[in-house]
Amino acid sequence: MTLQGPPLISGLDHVQIEAPAGCEAEAHAFFGGFLGLPELPKPAVLAARGGAWFGLPDGRQLHIGVTPNFVPRDKGHLALRCTDLDAVTERASASGISCVPDTELAPIRRVFLRDPWGNRLEILEAR
């Protein structure tokens, strides 16, 4: 297939991860408290569904969506960037959150951890 014309997509707006019903308090504590992301108001029509929205420093958004029969994701995952991976791992340790360092992409520094519901999460240090 040959593409013609300019790209149809201009960028990434948001990412949604799944969580079980009643996840809001844990979402606030983990994404708002531990990671320090600001919570964004959900439109009223969507707020009744539960979950939470958070802002990322680049203007994109992270949405936590309630899903029936929730199963944590192990392979598919969210990957976030940070400027100081040591600060992330220190805060995680102080918060009782396990981080698993990974050197497979060295010299890129990264760790894997789990959100409150068991979804895999990757944090990479910006180069």
Automatic annotation (TrEMBL):
It comes from the Bacteria. InterPro entries: Glyas_Bleomycin-R_OHBP_Dase, Glyoxalase_6, VOC_core. Residues 11-126 form the VOC domain. PANTHER family: FAMILY PROTEIN, PUTATIVE (AFU_ORTHOLOGUE AFUA_3G15060)-RELATED. This is VOC family protein.
